[in-house]
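Revision sheet: C-alpha coordinates.
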Amino acid sequence: MDQFRRLHRYLATQHRLAFGPALLLLGEELPYGDGVWLYFTGTFRLRLDPAALQDIPRAQEVIKAGGMSNSLRLANMVFKQPDPFFLPLLEFEGAAGPHQVTMVLSRQHLLWGSATGRDLAKALSGHPVPFSGFGTLHPDEGELRPFALRTVNRR
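Predicted:
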Protein backbone atom coordinates (compact mmCIF):
# COMPACT_ATOMS: atom_id res chain seq x y z
CA MET A 1 0.00 0.00 0.00
CA ASP A 2 2.85 2.42 0.76
CA GLN A 3 4.28 1.84 -2.73
CA PHE A 4 0.95 2.85 -4.26
CA ARG A 5 0.83 6.02 -2.19
CA ARG A 6 4.42 7.02 -3.00
CA LEU A 7 3.90 6.36 -6.69
CA HIS A 8 0.66 8.35 -6.65
CA ARG A 9 2.34 11.33 -4.94
CA TYR A 10 5.27 11.32 -7.35
CA LEU A 11 3.15 11.08 -10.51
CA ALA A 12 0.69 13.70 -9.27
CA THR A 13 3.49 16.23 -8.62
CA GLN A 14 4.81 15.59 -12.14
CA HIS A 15 1.30 16.08 -13.64
CA ARG A 16 1.59 12.65 -15.24
CA LEU A 17 -1.28 10.93 -13.49
CA ALA A 18 -4.88 10.51 -14.58
CA PHE A 19 -7.56 9.03 -12.34
CA GLY A 20 -9.50 6.77 -14.70
CA PRO A 21 -12.64 6.17 -12.58
CA ALA A 22 -13.28 9.92 -12.19
CA LEU A 23 -12.70 10.61 -15.88
CA LEU A 24 -15.19 7.90 -16.83
CA LEU A 25 -17.77 9.28 -14.40
CA LEU A 26 -17.36 12.69 -16.04
CA GLY A 27 -17.85 11.13 -19.48
CA GLU A 28 -14.32 11.96 -20.60
CA GLU A 29 -11.98 9.80 -22.64
CA LEU A 30 -9.12 8.04 -20.90
CA PRO A 31 -5.66 9.38 -21.78
CA TYR A 32 -3.43 7.01 -23.67
CA GLY A 33 0.23 6.66 -24.58
CA ASP A 34 3.37 6.66 -22.48
CA GLY A 35 3.15 10.30 -21.39
CA VAL A 36 0.43 9.83 -18.75
CA TRP A 37 0.06 7.06 -16.24
CA LEU A 38 -3.50 6.01 -15.69
CA TYR A 39 -4.86 4.81 -12.37
CA PHE A 40 -7.34 2.12 -13.39
CA THR A 41 -9.71 -0.35 -11.85
CA GLY A 42 -11.35 -3.19 -13.68
CA THR A 43 -12.24 -6.82 -13.81
CA PHE A 44 -10.05 -9.05 -15.94
CA ARG A 45 -10.19 -12.69 -16.94
CA LEU A 46 -7.07 -14.82 -17.22
CA ARG A 47 -6.45 -16.01 -20.78
CA LEU A 48 -5.04 -19.46 -20.21
CA ASP A 49 -4.50 -22.33 -22.56
CA PRO A 50 -5.56 -25.46 -20.60
CA ALA A 51 -2.63 -27.33 -22.18
CA ALA A 52 -0.26 -25.02 -20.28
CA LEU A 53 -1.36 -26.58 -16.98
CA GLN A 54 -0.58 -30.07 -18.27
CA ASP A 55 3.13 -29.28 -18.11
CA ILE A 56 2.99 -28.41 -14.42
CA PRO A 57 3.69 -31.41 -12.18
CA ARG A 58 0.65 -32.57 -10.16
CA ALA A 59 -1.57 -29.81 -11.62
CA GLN A 60 -4.06 -32.24 -13.18
CA GLU A 61 -4.59 -34.18 -9.95
CA VAL A 62 -5.20 -30.92 -8.06
CA ILE A 63 -7.69 -29.75 -10.70
CA LYS A 64 -9.58 -33.06 -10.55
CA ALA A 65 -9.76 -32.92 -6.74
CA GLY A 66 -11.58 -29.55 -6.88
CA GLY A 67 -12.39 -27.31 -3.90
CA MET A 68 -10.93 -23.98 -2.80
CA SER A 69 -8.05 -25.46 -0.80
CA ASN A 70 -6.96 -27.44 -3.85
CA SER A 71 -7.40 -24.37 -6.07
CA LEU A 72 -5.14 -22.46 -3.66
CA ARG A 73 -2.56 -25.27 -3.92
CA LEU A 74 -2.73 -25.04 -7.71
CA ALA A 75 -2.37 -21.25 -7.66
CA ASN A 76 0.61 -21.62 -5.35
CA MET A 77 2.19 -24.16 -7.71
CA VAL A 78 1.59 -21.98 -10.78
CA PHE A 79 2.37 -18.50 -9.51
CA LYS A 80 5.16 -19.26 -7.05
CA GLN A 81 6.93 -21.83 -9.22
CA PRO A 82 10.65 -20.94 -9.22
CA ASP A 83 11.09 -22.16 -12.79
CA PRO A 84 10.00 -19.35 -15.14
CA PHE A 85 9.34 -21.96 -17.83
CA PHE A 86 5.91 -22.45 -16.27
CA LEU A 87 3.69 -19.55 -17.35
CA PRO A 88 6.37 -16.82 -17.39
CA LEU A 89 3.84 -14.25 -18.64
CA LEU A 90 0.17 -14.01 -17.84
CA GLU A 91 -2.43 -12.48 -20.12
CA PHE A 92 -5.60 -10.99 -18.71
CA GLU A 93 -8.47 -9.68 -20.83
CA GLY A 94 -10.78 -6.94 -19.68
CA ALA A 95 -11.86 -3.37 -20.25
CA ALA A 96 -10.35 0.03 -19.58
CA GLY A 97 -13.31 2.33 -20.00
CA PRO A 98 -14.75 1.70 -23.48
CA HIS A 99 -11.61 -0.12 -24.66
CA GLN A 100 -11.27 -3.90 -24.63
CA VAL A 101 -7.66 -4.54 -23.66
CA THR A 102 -5.18 -7.25 -22.89
CA MET A 103 -2.94 -6.85 -19.87
CA VAL A 104 0.29 -8.86 -20.03
CA LEU A 105 2.37 -9.21 -16.88
CA SER A 106 5.03 -11.36 -15.36
CA ARG A 107 3.74 -13.70 -12.68
CA GLN A 108 6.86 -12.87 -10.69
CA HIS A 109 5.65 -9.27 -10.25
CA LEU A 110 2.44 -10.32 -8.51
CA LEU A 111 2.62 -9.83 -4.77
CA TRP A 112 1.54 -13.08 -3.16
CA GLY A 113 -0.76 -12.85 -0.16
CA SER A 114 -3.88 -14.53 1.14
CA ALA A 115 -6.26 -12.33 -0.89
CA THR A 116 -4.11 -12.53 -4.01
CA GLY A 117 -3.88 -16.31 -3.65
CA ARG A 118 -7.67 -16.65 -3.53
CA ASP A 119 -8.13 -14.31 -6.51
CA LEU A 120 -5.55 -16.12 -8.62
CA ALA A 121 -7.02 -19.48 -7.69
CA LYS A 122 -10.36 -18.18 -8.97
CA ALA A 123 -8.64 -16.87 -12.11
CA LEU A 124 -7.28 -20.35 -12.86
CA SER A 125 -10.87 -21.61 -12.66
CA GLY A 126 -11.98 -19.07 -15.27
CA HIS A 127 -13.52 -16.48 -12.91
CA PRO A 128 -12.87 -12.75 -13.41
CA VAL A 129 -10.45 -11.00 -11.05
CA PRO A 130 -10.75 -7.36 -9.95
CA PHE A 131 -7.51 -5.37 -10.30
CA SER A 132 -6.44 -1.81 -9.66
CA GLY A 133 -3.16 -0.23 -10.58
CA PHE A 134 -1.13 2.27 -12.51
CA GLY A 135 -0.25 1.77 -16.14
CA THR A 136 -0.36 3.18 -19.62
CA LEU A 137 -3.23 2.63 -22.01
CA HIS A 138 -2.58 1.82 -25.66
CA PRO A 139 -6.03 1.27 -27.21
CA ASP A 140 -4.66 1.19 -30.78
CA GLU A 141 -2.69 -1.93 -29.78
CA GLY A 142 -5.42 -3.20 -27.46
CA GLU A 143 -3.08 -3.12 -24.46
CA LEU A 144 -3.04 -1.88 -20.92
CA ARG A 145 0.56 -1.94 -19.66
CA PRO A 146 0.58 -2.10 -15.86
CA PHE A 147 3.48 -0.84 -13.78
CA ALA A 148 1.99 -1.35 -10.33
CA LEU A 149 -0.85 -3.77 -9.87
CA ARG A 150 -2.84 -5.41 -7.10
CA THR A 151 -5.94 -7.50 -6.77
CA VAL A 152 -8.88 -5.71 -5.18
CA ASN A 153 -10.97 -7.29 -2.47
CA ARG A 154 -14.55 -6.33 -3.35
CA ARG A 155 -16.99 -7.42 -0.68
